[in-house]
Amino acid sequence: MSDQATTIPAPRPENQRTDAALLELRSVEVAYGGIVALKGIDLEVHQGEIVALLGANGAGKTTTLRTVSGLLQPRSGQVLYAGEPLSGIPAHKIVQLGIGHSPEGRRIFPRMTVLENLQMGAYRFKAVSQNDLNQVFELFPRLHERRTQLGGNLSGGEQQMLAIGRAMMGQPTLLLLDEPSMGLAPLIVAQIFEIIERINALGTTILLVEQNAAQALKLANRGYVLETGEVRMSAPAAELLDDPRVREAYLGETTE
Ligand SMILES: Nc1ncnc2c1ncn2[C@@H]1O[C@H](COP(=O)(O)OP(=O)(O)O)[C@@H](O)[C@H]1O
Ligand SMILES: [Mg+2]
């Protein structure tokens, strides 16, 4: 009887999962004019998870993230966040609801300093929280070192850290990461993945779009494979890593 009160789960990622989805896409269709980019996709992200979204170029990964963050509106279907539909809610309100987005290609402001870039990440909130800044600088000591430098003078890896750091301002509940390893050297990619893992361990749920399927799946709890706007596979990450179709198509292996 009294067991419920005494079994407090340890704050480890695999124990944070709860049954109600934090994010749910139901039959989401998105079109650019006549081009249908998402043909009715279903996807769930649970609190505490890292979910990898994989697929070739043009599969619809970026479109999915931009739809969740309100930059695109589905032409049918629903996006639910903590059980509430997001339809019609503008992007800046969605940030306030706790969804951070680090976009494809980083999109930092090259003529602003690192600090100003981070402050821009907080401009939807009433004030820039010193707490948020401290947390970002703790995650990325490099950004603290370079806080007075212009964004445009940072290396590719540092710009990626800045894009993620900017999305962390406001302490999102759900962080959307679009190709954080793109164009970076292997050593830097490893650092970025380590930081993603750390952000998750500190309690942030993550939807991770990656071309680097092997590394993404090693980090993720579950994964989805998109193909031309449809979900082709959805499984625990370990299963996807072992799947011959995934290995051939996304891990650059030949099955003989
Ligand atoms: N702004 C746009 N206008 C028209 N078509 C687009 C636009 N952005 C993406 N698309 C198309 O939508 C599909 C999905 O693109 P995208 O979501 O960027 O894929 P991914 O991120 O998986 O590479 C592709 O066919 C792409 O050409
Ligand atoms: Mg993309």
CATH class: Alpha Beta
Categorize the overall geometry.
globular
Output the strand order for the largest sheet. 6-7-8-3-9-10
Residues in helices, as a percent range: 25-40%
Biggest sheet descriptor: 6 strands, mixed
Average pLDDT works out at: 89
Structural class: alpha/beta
Plain-language structure description:
This protein is α/β, with parallel strands linked by helices and 256 residues long. It has helices spanning 3-6, 13-16, 61-68, 91-96, 114-121, 130-139, 141-145, 156-168, 186-201, 213-219, 237-242, 244-250, and strands at residues 21-32, 35-46, 50-54, 76-81, 84-85, 99-102, 174-178, 205-209, 222-227, 230-236. The strands form 2 sheets. A 6-stranded mixed sheet has the order 6-7-8-3-9-10, with helices on both faces. A 4-stranded antiparallel sheet has the order 2-1-4-5, with helices on one face. Strand 7 (174-178), helix 9 (186-201) and strand 8 (205-209) form a beta-alpha-beta unit. Bound molecules: adenosine-5'-diphosphate (ADP) and magnesium ion. Residues 61-62, 104 line the site of magnesium ion (MG).
Present the secondary structure layout.
Layout: H1 3-6, H2 13-16, E1 21-32, E2 35-46, E3 50-54, H3 61-68, E4 76-81, E5 84-85, H4 91-96, E6 99-102, H5 114-121, H6 130-139, H7 141-145, H8 156-168, E7 174-178, H9 186-201, E8 205-209, H10 213-219, E9 222-227, E10 230-236, H11 237-242, H12 244-250
Parallel strand pairs: 3-8, 3-9, 6-7, 7-8
Antiparallel strand pairs: 1-2, 1-4, 4-5, 9-10
Helix pairs in contact: 5-8
Magnesium ion is lined by residues 61-62, 104.
